[in-house]
Design goal:
The complex is a heterodimer of chains A (about 140) and B (about 400). Chain A has about 140 residues and is α+β, with helices and mostly antiparallel strands. Chain A has one domain: Sufe protein. Chain: A, CATH 3.90.1010.10. In chain A, about 50% of the residues lie in helices and about 15% in strands. Chain A contains seven helices and three strands. Chain B has about 400 residues and is α/β, with parallel strands linked by helices. Chain B folds into two domains: about 140 residues, Aspartate Aminotransferase, domain 1 (Alpha-Beta Complex), CATH 3.90.1150.10; about 250 residues, 3-Layer(aba) Sandwich (Aspartate Aminotransferase, domain 2). In chain B, the strands form five sheets. Chain B has a seven-stranded mixed sheet, with helices on both faces. The chains are: A alpha+beta (about 140), B alpha/beta (about 400). Chains A and B meet through α2 and α3 of A and α12 and α14 of B.
Chain lengths: ~140, ~400
């Protein structure tokens, strides 16, 4: 699926829900479906430091596509990390670099991606795009 | 309680709004308090009628603004019972006051091998400035521990005192634990050894009647915005003998007496430490805040907030797996907690969606949070405009968080 198609799928799931707290229940469920990161990457080298919650991110490049695995010590953060991974993992560096990720905005979670939110997610998106750029330059 | 809570709340229009379609409950008072109309009006009145640079002109407005500014200094002096008006220095806030003391005291009195004592429960504002000046001077920063209930380990503090100890820097009230430190005893002990004490009063002045003469502290620092006044204004109280000895912190206009190409002589106190055009609107707002607190009465405020605290502890303790940080006998009206192993960021995000503003994270006190080995806490800090009903809603929100994440 393309980035846009996966984004639309997520947006549909969220727009079906009215209540904020139900949306957060869905985010928690999404966190549970995040494929586990190899423990050897859960080190300071792979950490994206926000002020409050930690995010670990690892990327590898296979057959022209970037594959991400990640984790967080906060469950809401993990849920949003899971969405970002499901949207961007398995895509080409070009697609990742040009993704505007406006689904976050469409489901009303843009506050979580704001650099002022201090949860590391804004830096995570930056880091994912940086990985894509580096893999593209190397190949 | 001798004040009418509904009348008090009417003075704070910001509290009557809805967020996420729920009535706002503001429990982040230790970060900043809301401002009553009296403070907001004092600031706008100043700009509407009196704005002028002070201490300079001979014209009508300048004289009027200068008089109001100096009148405010007198009211602040009275509020903390400082011996004299020129011992009250206006600063940007508690952080600047503490930076001033650390920089000026350190410059004059700290030498290689000297020691400064602080505590592990300090806000970064009373920790980092000392770390920096000690680093510059080759002095050693000693850090006093806390007891498991969040009280200061006084014995440990005293055991750190040596003949190289030059100053003790400690907080009146911990912004994370709420602990009210027995600063009067500590100051008396330190003075017995000839050591001055600087007190971070940022969390003290809004909750407790502060009497710097009775405490006998050498310096007392606080911010306007944590005591219902505006942001960007604060106070440094210092004993005259120290302020006379310390070198100026910043230079510029106002703080000089005579400037020639060869030499500058400094102005007298308090102006020696007030370089540049001061924050006059801030001082006008602070004055109104002081008057507001005086009208309510600090004893009444303390008694009411204590009632809120007891109710919060009682209700929240009934929830299983609650972990409280800071259960000192003498405590200001805040609770710092974790719900089992739920990350404070997760808890805070959901509590926010229930319309309740709490603070999560390390609260600018990383050494303390590291001491507990936790990612941070959720902190609900109360003010006299909060109600028992609001605390009940916090309890409901915490229960909801617990259900969601377990």
């Amino acid at each position: 699926m393309t980035i846009q198609e996966i984004e639309s799928q997520i947006v549909d799931e969220f727009t079906a829900l009215d209540d904020w707290l139900d949306k957060y229940d869905l985010i928690l469920d999404m966190g549970k479906s995040l494929p586990p990161i190899d423990p050897k990457y859960k080190t300071d080298q792979f950490i994206i430091s926000g002020c409050q919650s930690k995010v670990w991110l690892h990327a590898e490049y296979r057959d022209g596509k970037v594959y991400f695995t990640a984790d967080s010590d906060a469950i809401i953060t993990k849920g949003i990390v899971s969405m970002l991974v499901s949207v961007l993992s398995g895509q080409t560096p070009d697609a990742i670099q040009s993704a505007d990720l406006n689904f976050i905005n469409r489901i009303g979670l843009n506050e979580h991606l704001s650099p002022t939110r201090s949860n590391g997610l804004a830096s995570m998106v930056k880091q994912m795009k940086l990985y894509a750029m580096v893999f593209k330059m190397k190949s | 309680m001798s004040f009418d809570i509904q009348q008090v709340r009417a003075d704070f229009p910001i509290l009557s709004q809805a967020i996420y379609k729920r009535p706002l409950i503001y429990f982040d008072n230790a970060a900043t308090t809301q401002k009553p109309l009296q403070v907001i009006n004092a600031i706008s009145d100043y700009y509407l009628h009196d704005n002028c640079n002070i201490h300079r002109g001979v014209h009508y407005l300048s004289v009027k603004a200068t008089e109001a500014f100096e009148e405010a200094r007198k009211e602040v002096r009275e509020f903390i019972n400082a011996p004299s008006t020129h011992e009250v220095i206006f600063t940007k806030g508690a952080s600047e006051s503490l930076n001033l003391v650390a920089a000026s005291f350190g410059k004059k009195f700290l030498k290689e091998g000297d020691e400064v004592i602080t505590t592990i429960m300090e806000h970064h504002s009373n920790f980092v400035p000392w770390q920096i000046i000690c680093g510059e001077k080759g002095a050693v920063l000693r850090v006093a521990n806390i007891l498991p209930n969040g009280e200061l380990d006084q014995e440990h503090l005293y055991s750190l005192i040596t003949d190289r100890t030059k100053i003790i820097a400690l907080t009146h009230v911990s912004n994370v634990l709420g602990t009210i430190n027995p600063i009067k005893d500590i100051i008396a002990f330190a003075h017995g050894k000839g050591i001055p004490v600087v007190v971070d009063g940022a969390q003290g002045v809004s909750h407790i009647k502060v009497d710097v003469t009775d405490l006998d502290c050498d310096f007392y620092c606080f911010s306007g915005h944590k005591m219902y006044g505006p942001m960007g204004i604060g106070v440094l109280y210092g004993k005259e003998k120290w302020l006379e000895e310390l070198p100026p912190y910043q230079s510029g206009g106002e703080m000089v007496k005579d400037v020639t190409i060869e030499k500058t002589t400094y102005n007298e106190l308090p102006f020696k430490f007030e370089a540049g055009t001061p924050n006059v609107e801030g001082v006008m707002g602070l004055r109104a805040a002081v008057q507001y607190l005086k009208n309510l009465g600090m004893e009444e405020i303390h008694a009411y907030e204590d009632k809120l605290l007891k109710h919060a502890v009682e209700r929240l303790s009934a929830i299983r797996d609650m972990r409280f940080f800071g259960t000192a006998l003498l405590k200001a009206s805040l609770v710092s907690f974790l719900i089992g192993d739920i990350h404070p960021f997760d808890a805070g995000t959901i509590i926010d969606k229930m319309g309740i503003a709490v603070r999560t994270g390390h609260h600018c006190a990383q050494p303390l949070i590291d001491h507990f080995g936790i990612p941070g806490t959720v902190r609900a800090s109360f003010a006299f405009y909060n109600t028992i009903e609001e605390i009940d809603k916090l309890t409901d929100a915490v229960s909801r968080v617990k259900t969601m994440f377990s």
